[in-house]
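haha ok so turns out i had the wrong file open the whole time. this is the CORRECT one, sorry everyone. sequence first:
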Amino acid sequence: MFSPSEWETDSADNPVSECFSRSCSSSSPERARFGARLSCAGKSPGPHIIEQYLHDSSERGRDRQAVVTRGSFPDAAACSQIAHAGPGRKCPGGSMLYARSSALLVAVLVNILVNIMSAQAFGATAESEAPSRFDQRRQYQDAIHFISSGQRTKYLRLKDKLRTYPLFPYLEYTDRIHRIAYQTPDEIRAFVEQHADTPLAERLRHNYVYSEGKRGRWANFLAFFDPDNATDLSACFYPYALAKQGREDQAMAEARKLWLVPFSQPDECDASFDLWLDAGHPDGATAWQRYAMSMKDNEVTLANYLMRFVDPDDRQFAAQLKLVHTRPENITRTSRFKSTHPLSQEVILHGIQRFARRDPGLAFELLQDYAGQQEFDRDALNDTWAYIGHRLAGIDDGKYLSALPLELRDYPDLIEAMIRHAIGRNRPGDILVLIHLLPAEAQQTSRWRYWKATVLAGSEGQADQAMGQQIFTELSKERSFYGFMSADRLGVNYHFEYQPAAISNDEILSLELTPGIQRALEFFTLGDYTSARREWYFTTRDFSTRELAIAARVAARWGWYKPAIQSLIDAEAWDDLAVRFPVAFRETFLRNARGADIPVNWSLAVARQESAFMADARSSAGALGLMQLMPKTAELTAQYAGFRLSSSSQLTDPQVNILLGSHYLGQMLRRFDNNRVLATAAYNAGPGRVDRWRNDGLSADAWIETIPFAETRQYVQNVLTFAAIYSWQMDLQQPLIYAHEHQKFAPPAPPSQTLSASATDTLPDETM
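then structure:
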């Protein structure tokens, strides 16, 4: 006898026999479902198809024997006999079947050819009916609407059409979320495992945990709850769930963690807190701790509620803490705070810190007096001295700062505040001494090397001057605010150090096909930027630096600037300037810069600093869009610009945002005498503050360094640096700070301004 493989070998030149042999050995039930539509083209008919065919034939009045003897199509047994006998051999069942084998094979050939033609026609029809990506996007949005509006039958009709769409997992997720109460643990686990490479796995788990907690299904809740990765609302259920499962001690410990915070917890925590309180908690120390935390965090209403839990013996100190917090001047009445109790000492130190916000000099003297009467905790006392020192650095002439009873090396932030104090008062000796008190790592930053060089260059000693010039020379090779300032001092070109990553188009196209990237780009195309960013950052979180650099190019290709910039930052690919500083919305920025009469590189730099060109950006303060405009500011600017702003939602439209942002920059520029340094600070902190901060006795670099707000200080430095980079990118030939801007401040201005970059620093045309 011959095996099926031997039959194929013996009949290698006979495609019909080869197909027929594979038919006999096939056992795939899927092929039976397709019946005669399957052919030898990769999907050979097998025994199940034969059985299906026989069944269909019998339905038309033909029995098995008739089918076999007339040669229409063999049954499985006949096929087996023919396969084992082989061409030209007698079948074990007799010569009659053998005699009909040739006719039977011819019939099979005809049938298979018909099947091939049917399959091709079917395939062509299926291909023509397959929805395009454009159609799938519309169908996806329809499907989401059907799920959300309870039209699940309509959703199910669309579902199969979208199985190949990148966002199909989101349909399944949305469907499960809307039926979360009916999901079984096994269904949740299956989804989480299947979609572990998406943000959806954790999101579904979080939703399921919360849902089970709300319904009191504590076994399921605990099975899926992760204490290290839980939402605040679900965490509220955790102690109660533990208690319901008999884990009382752990439940009490977890309830204490929830309770001991300086803010009010959501209602979901009430059941856990009730259990904890019923068990006799909190003790006096815990009650005081939360009361003090809440008061110091300015949660006065919560602190008032918590007073009921404070030990009766401690309530006098709680009342004093509230008094000095809400009316700090009471701390000057030293006779009221004679007690040496530790809680009284805590009240005194908090009261002095609060009072230092008004009068740091008097606070200094008060702390000296109290320190002579009390035995304060050493660390708490020193922290209070340091706090007063920070307040003094903004206003003191040096009288109190120099008398701080601290080991300054232990407080580098205070040292930096004192350096700025010395810069603002032009005390070069103090600057140099204080810089040397900083940790070695801090001394080597561009900032403090620049100011060390500034002091040395102004010295009368030639050796000091030479050292200062040497530091400026080293700094001038850096692409930074202090590097560009140093280059201006020396009158040399800026060093941009443009080094694009060598990335092939094949690498870009390959990464673009990554499922997570595909999902992110689909959301981006649909305008769902929040979901797009969530997918992007989830997918790229474990990328290598090389993959991040490629991902940045993918995002840049799509005009999706924020992820492109962030990916290069994560990859520390600092020199790929074309992607890190894209000339985004170029025509819109150019048009509005002309209309507002401002430098276009400046407005681009502001947008790059504010949002990295994220159209839907929204700050915690409510600023919106690319250039982060507050709605009220935008409304007033729109009136000034003759533009009708009907809704603040328009600020997420780049065209509207750039128009109003450019005009607001123009307003600030004209208010501050065409000085971008002051106007940039005003854009960030408000023009009123800049009016108060102005000091014509300081040079431009000194004024920037002494801006009281650290955020605004860094903001101004970044915007000016970014503007210089955009100037270079766009071949605009503009310096970091213009000569006329320097003239608004105290001399000396830099000796010369070199506006052009070297030939090797020119960006390729295709990156513009």
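Residues 139 and 158 are 7 Å apart (CA to CA).
again sry for the mixup
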